[in-house]
Amino acid sequence: MMLTGLFFVVCTLVLSGFLIQSAAARAADGAKKSVGAVVTMQLDLNALMNSGKGGSASNGQTPGVIGPNGDLHIDLVDRISKSQVVVQCNYTTQSGAAPGSDSKLYRPVSTSGGSQSGGVDFFKADGVRDLSVVDDFRNGDSKLVAGTGIGPNSPAGSVVIEKRLADADHLKVGDKVHFKIGEIDPALDHSKEFAFTVAGIYTSDKVSATGQNAPAMLDPGNQLYVTAAGASTLLGKGTDSGGGVVSQATFTLSDPADLGRLKADATAAGADLTIFPLSVNDKQYQTLVGPITKTASFATVTVWLVSVGGTVILGLIVAFSLRERRKEMGVLLSLGENKPRLLGQHLVEVFACALLAIGGATAVSGVLSRAVGNHMLAGEVSSAANAPKDQTPDYSGVNGIPSHDSPTVTPISKLDVRIGSGDIARIGAAGLGIAAVATLIPGVAVLRLNPREILTKGD
Fold first, then answer.
1. Strand locations in 237-366, DSSP E?
2. Same-domain check for residues 243 and 316
3. 423 and 343 share a domain?
């Protein structure tokens, strides 16, 4: 009864640890499928300069100015996005746009003659691949009220404008509007106008800046959304080489472990990963599985401690039992019983106790692991909630759009404990393994027994 009871405690704790580990693994797999991991690709300016491929006077560029080798082209990103490990791809281009002959900046208040900044104020033009995943549109701060947004198949000359600007410039969906390059670079042609078609009109909840000297670019009414190719044109880069440029590309992977495969595919596509490194951002995934991973780690440590401690204690009990039965073994040996069969007898006895204990552990471990695991997990979730917030940008939003907002996901706070045949097989192997080690190590003493010494000297 003592041996069976001790085995029951050991097997129950070990099986509970196995169940917590299995539940954590299932939760992690589910989290990978739900949020994946986002890999960011963008220019590393220091690496570009150190490589000697940056701007220089020898190649006709202004010293200290980023040259064409620092451009991340749309065509390259599209080739990388065809990798089998990429679930979704997105890219953005930050640009500006100068007013054309038929467009003017929206100004909520009249400006004095000297506040025009010499004509260097611009529209803010963001090149996007999919407007619906931009933060302001995802969280409802901005809404389309006419036309369509920017999508992967939108014409390069599409533009979505804010309603205040549309009213001020008397623009509606389908109208043509012209903009000029919005970069302060004397080498660019600032007189050339580029035609855009108003694809949609949106409203923004953001309030216009007040004051006569407020830059027009910072006014939400002057926020334009164009395609990445359109933004590239307004940067003065054009679209002839590589389909235009992007400021940043993001690739959503189903598993953070696929980063190595993505790097190999990006290199094969022609990317220089020294200048345009790939860095994984799995903030949402870590938010989901962080507490449960710590709980699983604690369960793993518990399994090892209980297994080692249980083996030692059971070994001592078996050794004590063998000592108490020395005379019995001496009589059996004197009658011709061989030592391996005598050791096997004790092994069968311990195995019988272990099987009974494993059966009982299987019946109660599900309830115990669910209660203990959820209690530990609640503590880890609470600790994570009280931990200092990571202020780095989060690129793990839908389609990889960068966001400085807090992740919208909450940590997994409940274990889905299930007892399967695999778990029973694992505890069976572990329990019988512990029984074998606990019996065979002290059982070595049986192989050294001499029946004459046992019967004549006793203990």
1. 245-246, 248-253, 278-281
2. no
3. yes
Shared-domain flag, residues 406 and 369: yes
- What's the total number of domains in the chain? 2
Q: Which of 250, 281, 312 is the last residue of a domain?
A: 281
State both tokens at 397: 């939003």
Same domain, 196 and 295: no
Q: How many CA atoms lie within 13 A of 79 on its CB side?
A: 16
Same domain, 250 and 313: no
* Structural domain boundaries enclosing 261: 69-281
Give the domain-ending residue among 226, 261, 281: 281
Residue 96, sorted as left (phi over 0), alpha (psi -120 to 50) or beta, turns out to be beta
What does the block give as tokens for 160? 């979505």
Checking phi first, is residue 234 left (phi over 0); if not, alpha (psi -120 to 50) or beta?
A: alpha
In a domain, 35, yes or no: no
pLDDT tens for the 459 residues of the chain, in order:
887 887 788 777 777 777 777 777 766 666 665 556 778 888 888 877 777 665 544 444 444 456 667 778 888 888 888 888 888 888 888 888 888 888 888 887 655 444 444 445 889 888 888 888 787 887 888 899 998 888 888 888 899 999 999 998 999 999 999 998 877 766 677 788 889 999 999 998 887 765 556 677 788 888 999 988 888 888 887 666 667 788 888 888 877 778 888 889 889 888 888 888 887 765 666 666 666 677 667 777 777 777 777 778 877 777 777 777 777 777 887 888 787 887 788 888 888 888 888 888 788 777 776 776 666 666 655 654 554 555 455 444 444 444 434 445 555 556 666 677 777 787 788 778 877 887 777 777 666 767 776 666 655
